[in-house]
């Protein structure tokens, strides 16, 4: 019987985010276009199969109760009539020999199988500066491209050279690290350099901002960075450490539509290490007053 938790290297109590993170790391590592070692293809399929089950709450519950036998040998879950093998049907990722198809699910499933990365709309163009090709066993060649965090959240056009041919490719705003973009005759595997300022969680951004003890106590305003520039943020009097403020629709735009995530600002209150005699006396007076 297959051990889906073991395949992803997570515990049975792993959260959905931990499962997704482990999956993305492993699928990039063992992707057939990248990992040419013996057994890589088998490992890749094991990881995909495990994620297909564990990323779906209902399938995960069934697996926890009945084990992998509920999904093997063409069987779906005990309550479903469909097959459970994500590798059957028209080729890798279920795309078949027809033209480009779009499939996406927040839980990692797809209409014809489980693709290792989020698949975006097709973008046509020509152009290119060189980046590494990792193709070989895929139905179409796959290339890797490195872009910056700013290019990922705002979108960018790149001039690239593919097999000696100049192409211009459009990378839409909102792509994330590990995104795969499929064109007519090739695919792009996008690698995004991390931001020095923001942490990204899907379309949401998280920013930690240190504020002085006096500002946290008395309140005031500060400027905080967003991907669209600085904005003024009001600090409420009595703001506590680890307080989080939400900036609605200041996050990353979805690559699939007009929806936009939020930005969260988490406050770190800085307590002075050294105090002047006057400052110490004022704090002692404040302590007595409180």
Task: Write structural notes for this entry.
By secondary structure, the chain is of the alpha+beta class. The protein has helices at 4-8, 16-30, 40-54, 57-66, 149-154, 213-218, 277-289; strands spanning 142-147, 156-162, 165-171, 180-182, 187-192, 199-201, 204-212, 220-226, 229-235, 244-247, 263-270. A four-stranded mixed sheet has the order 6-7-11-10. Strands 1-5-4 form a three-stranded mixed sheet. α2 (16-30) runs antiparallel to α3. The radius of gyration is 24 Å and the shape is extended.
List the helices and strands and how they pair.
Blueprint: H1 4-8, H2 16-30, H3 40-54, H4 57-66, E1 142-147, H5 149-154, E2 156-162, E3 165-171, E4 180-182, E5 187-192, E6 199-201, E7 204-212, H6 213-218, E8 220-226, E9 229-235, E10 244-247, E11 263-270, H7 277-289
């Amino acid at each position: 019987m297959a051990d889906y938790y073991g395949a992803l290297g997570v515990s049975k109590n792993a959260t959905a985010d931990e499962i997704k993170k482990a999956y993305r790391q492993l699928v990039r590592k063992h992707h057939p276009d990248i990992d040419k070692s013996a057994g890589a293809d088998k490992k890749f399929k094991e990881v995909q199969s495990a994620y297909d089950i564990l990323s779906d709450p209902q399938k995960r519950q069934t697996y926890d109760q009945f084990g992998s036998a509920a999904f093997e040998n063409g069987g779906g879950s005990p309550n479903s009539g469909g097959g459970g093998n994500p590798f059957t049907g028209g080729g890798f990722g279920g795309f078949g020999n027809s033209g480009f198809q779009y499939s996406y699910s927040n839980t990692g499933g797809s209409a014809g199988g489980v693709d290792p990365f989020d698949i975006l709309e097709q973008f046509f163009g020509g152009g290119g500066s060189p980046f590494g090709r990792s193709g070989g066993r895929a139905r179409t060649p796959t290339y890797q491209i490195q872009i910056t965090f700013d290019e990922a959240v705002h979108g960018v056009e790149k001039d690239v050279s593919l097999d000696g041919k100049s192409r211009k490719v459009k990378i839409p705003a909102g792509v994330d690290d590990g995104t795969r973009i499929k064109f007519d005759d090739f695919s792009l595997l996008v690698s995004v350099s991390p931001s020095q300022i923001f942490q990204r969680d899907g379309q949401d951004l998280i920013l930690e901002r240190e504020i002085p003890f006096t500002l946290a106590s008395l309140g005031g305003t500060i400027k905080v960075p967003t991907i669209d520039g600085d904005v003024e943020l009001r600090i409420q009097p009595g703001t506590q450490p680890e307080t989080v403020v939400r900036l609605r629709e200041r996050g990353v735009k979805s690559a699939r539509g007009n929806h936009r995530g939020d930005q969260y600002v988490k406050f770190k209150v800085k307590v002075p290490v050294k105090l002047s005699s006057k400052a110490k006396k004022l704090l002692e007076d404040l302590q007595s007053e409180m």
